[in-house]
TrEMBL record, chain B:
The chain crosses the membrane at residues 6-27, 34-54, 60-79, 100-121, 170-194, 206-224, 236-264, 293-311, 353-368, 380-401, 413-435. The lineage of its organism: Bacteria, Candidatus Curtissiibacteriota. It comes from Candidatus Curtissbacteria bacterium GW2011_GWA1_40_16. Keywords: Membrane, Transmembrane, Transmembrane helix. This is Glycosyltransferase RgtA/B/C/D-like domain-containing protein. Coiled coil: none annotated.
């Protein structure tokens, strides 16, 4: 009986795994892409944006990032370290933010002055703030 | 890209070599025994402990220093003739590994490595816990040159242990950049070492190949190293350390069991119950057996407990589960109902064939049909108690968690089960077959 259980279980596992692998193959399309493109595709361009911001912002810069897409926002916040950017909601008071990043779409808040635009990601300075 | 690939392989070699050196000089009494899984596990663990210890003294690392240190690990080949001769002997005798193995198994490993590699290296790590917690810490440690009192608190929850994060930051130091793509070579290597270790144990049995298939093709096990949502998580490493701890236990190498349980607890707090249970029970285990009292196992186990807690204390990391108003928790949450709910969560998870294949059906069958044997063999009993300690720990965590219990269970239970799945399947295999060579025959 033990042998039957082990053999049947092995075939069941093989069946489930093969089904899973075959089902996933069509979704896996990035193997031959260059690494940078794979990363940018997954992060929706935020890896390149982080590199760009690191070039233009001093290490002591601080500010806020509007929460947009969950993972992309946290990823950008982390990548900007040691520049400290807090993640804020739409309704947050941004007066003390210094700099404000808006991923993926522009802002129309009159307090904000656009200072950079990188592939549809926007960097603003809050009027009267020094960063 | 080619340079990054070479550097990634070099990083893996530094882990393996450091593990080899630790094993050879500290634990094997200069008797070289080739075991990839143990080398990788010890290498990752010792490098992590080294980096954590540097954190106490605030000694910063940089790429140059790390590469120098990595080369130091290879120096014993220059100065130790005995080691060089033994390692060269194994390397030159590589054909015997293939000749003594079942060709079907070699083919299985090669095909599966290609398929898993194709999946893994089609994407970077892109899972919430990985990006937001483990690799976020790794990035910060890499930028700052290591752990310090300020940066260890930046990523929440701060009381998460740092083994996986410092392993990834070691990777970043050698690569010279924080890379979410190549860092996947670590979990990929861990997964293959896990299966190789399992195969080393089950191959003695006539149905070993079937057991290997049950283990290796368990959907959530291979998916944890190949899918972007899970490949950067720490749970696979915990499962890896638990499997090594249990295999050492069944081979009566209690010091190794203590080390691997300690390293598991340095990977995730979830693994602390097994380590504490081991430290508490191993004296009784040792006193009743004919073997020597396991002084070294006990010493290593408690040393790792103290290191773990000392690190948390020194860096004021606290504990999100212990720093709680217990009377409030008890008043607000009926303990029996909450525990029952968690246990039902586990029962539901065990029957998920899309996660575990037939793994838990096999585990359930052998525990129900031959579970009595566990009570006749102290080693098996200790193994079962360690797993039960884990389940009690998970259930307790679900009870005291500040988050909604149902949400917490729905989003994490499969990852917790992954930690105990490899040792549990191994335990069941030993119940089924025994380990006759080592005097732990359960039949």
């Amino acid at each position: 009986m033990d042998i039957v259980v082990v053999v049947c279980a092995a075939f069941l596992v093989l069946y489930v795994a093969t089904k899973g692998i075959m089902g996933s193959f069509p979704q896996v399309s990035g193997f031959w892409l260059p690494v940078d493109k794979k990363v940018d595709r997954e992060t929706l361009g935020q890896a390149s944006y982080a590199d760009h911001l690191k070039k233009i912002l001093p290490e002591k810069a601080y500010g806020c990032i509007y929460f947009s897409l969950d993972m992309q926002t946290w990823f950008l916040q982390n990548q900007l370290y040691p520049r400290m950017f807090s993640v804020v909601e739409e309704s947050a008071d941004i007066n003390d933010c210094g700099l404000v990043i808006s991923q993926f779409w522009p802002r129309t808040n009159p307090l904000l002055v656009e200072i950079d635009n990188f592939n549809g990601n926007y960097l603003y300075e809050v009027k009267g703030n020094v960063y | 890209m080619f340079i990054d690939l070479l550097l990634s392989i070099f990083v893996l070699l530094t882990f393996l070599q450091t593990g080899l050196v630790c094993d050879y000089y500290l634990f094997s009494k200069k008797r070289f025994k080739f075991d990839l899984a143990i080398f990788l596990a010890l290498g990752i663990g010792s490098i992590a402990i080294f980096q954590m210890a540097l954190g106490f003294f605030e000694v910063p690392l940089n790429s140059f220093l790390v590469i120098m240190l990595a080369f130091f690990a290879f120096l014993p080949y220059v100065f130790d003739k005995h080691l060089r001769r033994q390692v060269l002997g194994v390397v030159l005798d590589y054909k015997s590994i293939f000749q003594s193995s079942n060709p079907l198994v070699i083919l299985l490993f090669i095909v599966f490595a290609f398929v898993a590699g194709y999946f893994t290296f089609s994407h970077p790590v892109w899972g919430y816990d990985a990006v937001q917690r483990w690799l976020a810490k790794a990035y910060i440690f890499w930028v700052d040159g290591g752990i310090n009192k300020a940066n260890v608190h930046i990523v929440s929850p701060a009381d998460d242990p740092n083994l996986w994060s410092v392993t990834a930051s070691w990777f970043y130091f050698i690569l010279g950049k924080a890379d979410l793509f190549w860092v996947q070579t670590v979990p990929f290597a861990v997964f293959f070492c896990l299966t190789i270790k399992f195969w080393q144990i089950v191959k003695r049995e006539a149905l070993g190949l079937f057991w290997l298939v049950i283990f290796m093709f368990t959907p959530f096990l291979w998916q944890t190293s190949t899918l972007k949502a899970y490949s950067g998580n720490a749970d696979l490493l915990v499962g890896f350390y638990f499997l090594l701890a249990f295999s050492s236990l069944f081979y009566s190498k209690l010091s190794y069991t203590a080390i691997f349980l300690g390293l598991a607890a340095l990977t995730k707090n979830d693994a602390l119950p097994a380590l504490l249970a081991f430290c508490a029970l191993v004296p009784f285990f040792g006193l009743k057996s004919k073997q020597k009292f396991p002084v070294s196992a006990l010493f290593v186990g408690w040393a790792l407990v103290l290191f773990n807690l000392g690190f948390k204390y020194y860096f004021s990391l606290g504990s999100r589960y212990l720093d709680n108003d217990w009377s409030l928790v008890l008043k607000q949450k009926p303990i029996i109902e909450y525990t029952k709910y968690s246990l039902h969560g586990f029962r539901e998870e065990f029957r998920q064939v899309n996660h575990w294949g037939a793994g838990f059906l096999v585990i359930g069958y052998f525990i129900l049909s031959r579970g009595g044997k566990v009570f006749k063999d102290r080693t098996l009993l200790l193994g079962l108690v360690l797993i039960l300690a884990q389940v009690v720990g998970y259930t307790w965590t679900y009870y005291v968690t500040r988050e909604d219990q149902a949400t917490q269970i729905a989003t994490s239970i499969f990852r917790l089960v992954l930690q105990v799945y490899p040792p549990l399947l191994l335990l069941v295999f030993v119940i089924y077959s025994g380990l006759p060579k080592f005097g732990n025959k359960a039949k």
